[in-house]
Design a protein that fits this description.
By secondary structure, chain A is an alpha+beta fold. Helix content of chain A is about 30%, strand content about 25%. Classes of the chains: A alpha+beta (about 170), B alpha+beta (about 170).
Chain lengths: ~170, ~170
């Protein structure tokens, strides 16, 4: 087989092209996997849906209900553990649950949102010891500026009370 | 190498490229099947929606004023109104969920009362739901029926509560 100017055959060029194609596939795949492993978007979406469905369920209860939702991720049994165990921040507006990730280099990433069906017959009360917090230009929401450990929900005949806490406390659901 | 020789070398590489593509796609398929990055809670959402209608004291169930409690399983026909359902569940997004409830007399089979939740969206989505297109762009229709008692004219009668939920395709 005739050698080229630089001493390489055509078949060697094809082989290099083949390795490059394989490299691009694997690099894309590993970038995707790294993104899945380090990003908290899945956890945010999970928590937003979980809390919103919980609020919907509590609305349906024919009586008074008091519930403390444990929002610490590592307490929940995911199939594998994420490399960065970061806590999330919960916020609420009148009919949406918003879950923010931990602040990354001072920039607040877009929250995961999921709506809950607010009952117009019940007064919605947000008890927030840190007052309403404006998070990352997404409007005014009720929530803590710090990581959330517990979301407390209390329903009575005429009101639904939501509050969050960062304290790790002993709770007993009623 | 002459032109014919170059062409043969290139043709020899085609099976190798096809094999590489198969291996690449297999790995992508395996990884994608083991990594869950999408959450679909539509079935749960529909169940919760139905439970809110069936059990919420502010919903359509009979409220006993003497006992001061709602009685699940007994539908108060006077409460089966569209505006009552809209007040019961106020989702911020009007394109999130829609539904229809129907109380049917168990003996005669006639519809006694009907109400829609998110009326405009329901009638906009219904023709799309009947096509049964899967995925985004389609509308998922979930229907459940349950035996109830309904109260009308101070009398309890056997009935069937049919709840239809429409959700955008996911």
């Amino acid at each position: 087989m005739k050698l080229g100017k630089r001493g390489m055959t055509k078949s060697q060029y094809y082989a290099i092209g083949e390795f490059l194609a394989a490299g691009i596939v694997f690099l894309t795949l590993f970038t995707y996997l790294k993104g899945v492993a380090t990003d908290s978007q899945f956890e945010q979406n999970f928590m937003a849906r979980d809390v919103a469905l919980l609020l919907d369920s509590i609305h349906a209860a024919p009586g008074d209900v008091s519930f403390a939702y444990d929002a610490s991720i590592k307490e929940n049994s995911f199939v594998f553990e994420f490399s960065k165990q970061q806590k999330l921040r919960f916020a609420f507006d009148n009919s949406q649950v918003l879950v923010f990730p931990s602040t990354v280099f001072g920039v607040v990433i877009q929250p995961a949102r999921y709506p809950f069906g607010r009952d117009s017959n019940l007064e919605l009360i947000f008890e927030d010891p840190f007052n309403a917090e404006k998070l990352g230009g997404y409007g005014s929401y009720y929530g803590q500026p710090t990581n959330t450990t517990f979301v407390f929900i209390k329903k009575t005949d005429d009101a639904l009370n939501i509050s969050t806490s960062q304290e790790v406390i002993e709770v007993r659901n009623e | 190498m002459n032109r014919l020789g170059q062409a043969f070398t290139l043709i020899n590489f085609i099976p190798r490229i096809i094999f590489l593509a198969i291996v690449g796609f297999s790995i992508v398929f395996l990884v994608r099947s083991y990594v869950v990055d999408h959450l679909n809670v539509q079935e749960v959402q529909a169940e919760v929606f139905m439970h809110r209608i069936m059990y919420s004291p502010q919903g359509i169930i009979y409220f006993d004023p003497e006992l001061s409690t709602a009685v699940p399983g007994i539908v108060d026909i006077s409460k089966v109104k569209s505006n009552r359902l809209d007040a019961l569940m106020n989702y911020s997004d009007k394109s999130f969920i829609a539904g229809k409830i129907e109380v049917i007399d168990a003996i005669t089979g006639k519809t006694v009362a009907t109400a829609t939740y998110n009326n405009q969206t329901y009638f906009r989505w219904l023709p799309v739901a009947q096509v049964k297109l899967p995925g985004p762009g389609g509308i998922k229709q979930i229907v459940r029926s349950t035996y109830v008692l309904y109260q009308a004219n101070n009398a309890l009668t056997q009935g069937i509560l049919k709840i239809e939920v429409l959700l955008p395709g996911n």
